[in-house]
Amino acid sequence: MAINKHTNIDKQNILKNFDFVLLFLTVLTSIFGMVMIMSATASPFKYLLVQGVALILGITAVFFLMIVDYEYLAKMHKYLYAVSVFLLVLVLIPGIGTVENGARSWFRIGNLISIQPAEFAKLFFIITFSKHISGTGILLNRPKNVLLLCVHIIVLVGLVLLQPDFGTAMVFLCMAFVMLFAAGLAWKYIVALLGVATVAVPVSWFFVLQPYQKDRILTLFNPEADPMGSGYHVVHSKITVGSGQFFGTGLFEGASQYNNFLPERHTDFIFSVVCEELGFIGAVAVIALLVAIILRCVYIGINARNDLGKYICLGVASMFAFHLIENVGMCIGVMPVTGIPLPFFSYGGSSLLTNLVAIGMVMNVKYRSKVINF
Q: E-assigned strands of 233-293?
């Protein structure tokens, strides 16, 4: 029985704890997403090429991550945090970072490849913040430790807001809150954080949010007030969603593809395309697959061998959950339009690769968990 101290893999029983359920759900959802991207675009070859390469790289990363013990990865937390800060600062520099949809959030390489560093920063944050929390142990609620954890969050969120990318900043905050809550953060701190958030709302409105971001929030309450301006995406998305009714118009038969009715069909509003072409049945299938992945991540976290593994799994689960709620919500007009992609469905190589690497992190925890069935 050969076990390397960093990989911690029992080569005689290498498949014993391999999570075939999570892998199957992930691959099935990714392929489903690629089919919907193909259906949502008039010339799908470019998009399928990028998405296919990301899928192959991501699945490779899943198996690679199985090799290295997640505790060993967590020991590199200082370097991972430094890389996150470096990338988020680098993308803010004009000439290096590229502005798209009002935010300087991308590195562009040629005409085909775009990389969003915040996507990878989210993965590094899950590891570094999990390590930080687990390192505090029973002393989590000491004021000094809570302050340092807040600094850990604020630096990254602040850099993301400078892009500005409010949606991604909210993802970081959601992951942090879930992990802290699971760790047993005292209610006095939770109430204090909610108080700070309450104060931050008006401050952000007047000093942080850009005019187009304010319009998106106002549009949430009355998109029909400016149907050809700030409300255009929401109005057309709701019409597209409703047009599918129960069974949909049929795959590749969505009218919005041919009349250019719905913008960003293959990215932000891919769920609207699902509703249009596959109807209520397709929408339920998409949500069911993503919820199954989220619940599987939570289950693995609950049965992790230590707190570090638990926080990593909950961080991944909360990231997926926020993306799902926000994306579906904005497509049906109950959440502001933020550009948050639907995991495994929205087009984007960085997004898909990030999601697959996140799954690899969870499977790493599962392989080294204290239970092997279910």
A: none
Q: Return d(Cα 82, Cα 374) in angstroms, integer.
A: 38
360-154-337-272 Cα dihedral, nearest 10 degrees:
10
Give dist(CA 139, CA 132) in Å, integer: 12
Nearest CA-CA partner of 338 in 105, 177, 180, 90? 105
Look up residue 305 and give its two tokens.
């061998």
Distance CA 86, CA 139 (A): 30
Confidence of residue 2 (pLDDT cuts 50, 70, 90): very low
Sign of CA dihedral 61, 66, 69, 70: positive
Q: From CA 81, how far away is CA 172, in angstroms rounded?
A: 14
> pLDDT of 281-334, one tens digit each?
999 999 999 999 999 999 999 999 899 999 999 999 999 999 999 999 989 888
CB 355 within 8 A of CB 297: no
pLDDT digit string, tens, across residues 216-269: 677 666 666 666 666 677 888 888 888 888 888 888 887 766 666 777 888 889
CB neighbour class for 102 (10 Å; exposed up to 12, middle 13-18, buried from 19):
middle
CA proximity to 153, closest of 200, 103, 206, 202? 200
> What DSSP assignment string belongs to 97-112?
BEEETTEEEEEEETTT
pTM: 0.89
